[in-house]
């Protein structure tokens, strides 16, 4: 759903840029509360994983494909504020290095793909875990539903933005119907990827899943005929080796997905591209400012073998994203530890 340059006019692009900047400022502050010494390294890895999986377009209808947006996955794994930052780092890397998503439309893309998906998904997720049984399976089920709903929500948000600042005269009703219809199908794929990933992390390190915190049921003891909460046991310390193993496994998985599996991704246009072509939204699309980038269109310039070119580009993208994301979250974490302790 990467919006290219020329789809949205300058005033609305600027307005969404202000919205995005404000949301990022709030998210930076909120991420200081969400991140600790265990989860800060995971956040950079989540950004790299989202980058990798976004390269894996899957078919959803005749001539149309979809890919992960990642807002739900990031919010549930590392928290909503950190999740907004994760997806924003991915969008920034894609826009600058790979000419994917317009630079003047960066505010639109962050607002739509990072903010809307994360906020909607996490709101739905928290609502569900409050009413579902307090189990790990409930977290996975809630993840599925939250991710499913976040994608058509982003499609609706794009339609509203286009209604305010679209550069072509098209029927907004038709755009809304087409966008929401195809993105409901894409949402099923998003939901499956999100639920599988969250379930896999919960199976090995539930303590690292932000959305699973506080869901353990308290043990009850009968004292003098009354049930009382048992004392909370201190969690067993987890060896640093366990953190490194999970991080290494996640990084290798991301490299394999982006460097090898992406070659087999669907070549059909994604939901927005298909709707834009069918409805005439793309009539005033502009060439990307980074169209001549050495990594434009997820290929390495002057490498003629398509498999090698795409694989190298994917691996470079994962590497750059994990470094950029890890740097951002390391700085955020340092800012938190550097603040004076609050009393009360």
TrEMBL record:
Name the membrane topology term. Answer: Multi-pass membrane protein
Protein location: Cell membrane
Q: Which Pfam families match?
A: CbiM, PDGLE
| InterPro entries in the record | CbiM/NikMN, PDGLE_dom
Q: Which Gene3D superfamilies did the record assign?
A: 1.10.1760.20
PDGLE domain boundaries = 244-334
Broad class of the protein's primary localization: membrane
Q: Which positions, given as ranges, span the membrane?
A: 7-28, 40-60, 72-98, 110-129, 141-164, 176-204, 246-265, 312-332
Record key words, sorted: Cell membrane, Membrane, Transmembrane, Transmembrane helix, Transport
Q: What positions belong to coiled-coil segments?
A: none
The protein's name is Energy-coupling factor ABC transporter permease
Classification from the root reads: Bacteria, Bacillati, Actinomycetota, Actinomycetes, Kitasatosporales
């Amino acid at each position: 759903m990467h919006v290219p340059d020329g789809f949205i006019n300058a005033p609305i692009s600027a307005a969404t840029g202000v919205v995005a900047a404000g949301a990022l400022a709030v998210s930076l502050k909120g991420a200081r509360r969400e991140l600790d010494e265990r989860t800060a390294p995971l956040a950079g890895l989540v950004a790299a994983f989202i980058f990798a999986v976004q390269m894996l377009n899957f078919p959803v209808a005749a001539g149309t494909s979809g890919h992960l947006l990642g807002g739900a996955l990031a919010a549930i794994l590392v928290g909503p504020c950190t999740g907004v930052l994760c997806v924003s780092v991915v969008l920034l890397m894609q826009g600058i290095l790979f000419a994917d998503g317009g630079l003047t439309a960066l505010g639109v893309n962050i607002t739509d793909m990072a903010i809307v998906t994360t906020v909607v998904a996490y709101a739905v997720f928290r609502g569900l875990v409050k009413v579902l049984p307090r189990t790990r399976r409930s977290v996975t089920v809630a993840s599925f539903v939250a991710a499913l709903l976040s994608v058509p929500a982003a499609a609706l948000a794009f339609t509203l933005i286009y209604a305010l600042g679209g550069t072509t005269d098209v029927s907004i009703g038709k755009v809304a119907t087409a966008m929401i219809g195809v993105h409901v199908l894409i949402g099923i794929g998003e939901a499956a990827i999100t639920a599988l990933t969250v379930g896999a992390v919960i199976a090995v390190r539930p303590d690292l899943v932000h959305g699973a915190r506080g869901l353990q049921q308290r043990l009850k003891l009968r004292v003098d005929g009354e049930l009382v909460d048992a004392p909370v046991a201190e969690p067993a310390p987890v060896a640093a080796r366990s953190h490194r193993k999970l991080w290494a496994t996640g990084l290798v998985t991301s490299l394999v997905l982006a460097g090898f599996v992406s070659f087999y991704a669907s070549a059909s246009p994604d939901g927005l591209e298909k709707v834009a072509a069918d409805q005439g939204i793309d009539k005033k699309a502009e060439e990307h400012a980074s169209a001549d980038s050495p990594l434009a269109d997820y290929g390495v310039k002057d490498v003629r073998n398509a498999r090698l070119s795409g694989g190298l580009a994917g691996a470079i993208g994962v590497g750059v994203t994990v470094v950029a994301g890890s740097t951002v979250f390391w700085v955020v974490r340092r800012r938190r530890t550097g603040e004076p302790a609050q009393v009360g």
